[in-house]
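Q: I'm writing up a methods section and want to include an example of the input and output format. Could you take the sequence below and give the corresponding predicted structure tokens, formatted cleanly so I can copy it straight into the document?
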Amino acid sequence: NIRLTQEPSNLSDFVKFKEDLEESRIKIKNFENIKAELDKIEKTLKSEKFAHEIQTTSMKIKELETNCVEAVKNVERADGFQENKQEEMQTRLLKRIEELKEALKNDISKKLDEGSLVTVDAIPSDVLSDISKLETKLKKCQSNAEKFKHYQQVFEMNVTQVKELEETNMKFEAKRK
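A: Here is the clean output for your methods example:
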């Protein structure tokens, strides 16, 4: 209390300044220590993070290697399966080809026995007469078609069905009488 009541002297100000200076120096030293500790922690965290990333990457690499080995095994199994199936399919196809050849041979023999097929060398004379009969029928159909067109023009009607053609023919006969 005496100090407070007395007027400060220059010496007491100097002592106070020195104390404040010492206190500031201690605070700065503490601050530097704290900063150094923070730097250490930061370095430790970075190294741990880096170590963790390396460990994670190593785990991923190992996982990829395992997957690669499994993929190679699967490809080898698939190749073996494909080779087995290929042989089986070839056997089945050859068997099916033989069956089809036999069926074709039987079908051709049956058609020849029925007379459905005619060899190229032998053209029977009946065919020529059948061709001339068909030619006659064709000419008759052509003639009827021309008459049909004439009926449509005379009556100005569009006749498209056979039933209508018969009716039209009857009308024509009725008008003619």
